[in-house]
Amino acid sequence: MVSSIEELRITAANLRKEGLNSQQIADELSLSQDTISWLLAGNQQSEERPTDVRIGWRTIGVKPNRIAAVGTIMADVVEEELGFDEIDTIVGISINGIPTIVSIS
Predict the structure, then answer these.
(1) Three-state DSSP class for 91?
(2) Which of 3, 30, 53, 60 has minimal CB crowding within 10 Å?
(3) What is the pLDDT of residues 47-103, one digit of tens each?
(4) For the chain, how long is the longest CA-to-CA vector?
(5) 1-54: what fold?
(6) Domains of the chain: which residue ranges?
């Protein structure tokens, strides 16, 4: 996972060299096209930085209300796709997966 602006800039530049356009790079890095244009232009010192926000599982896992919200959303999707009668077992993997799956169940 890319964690710094400089790493994002290098990754975006490498993807550009591989022939990807701005939209493809934006999709690959889960960023907006404005951010990709900003990264590729090298204007990191500009005051007009794009406002993308990166949200990872660690960010969600530190607050119980966030875990509950994600669990509610996932349970709703599971119910819509499968119906609760079709589920025998659910499993949470990793440190944040366990409280999330408890919330889903």
Answers:
(1) coil
(2) 53
(3) 666 666 667 777 888 888 998 998 899 889 988 888 878 778 878 777 767 787 888
(4) 55
(5) Arc Repressor Mutant, subunit A (1.10.10)
(6) 1-54, 57-104
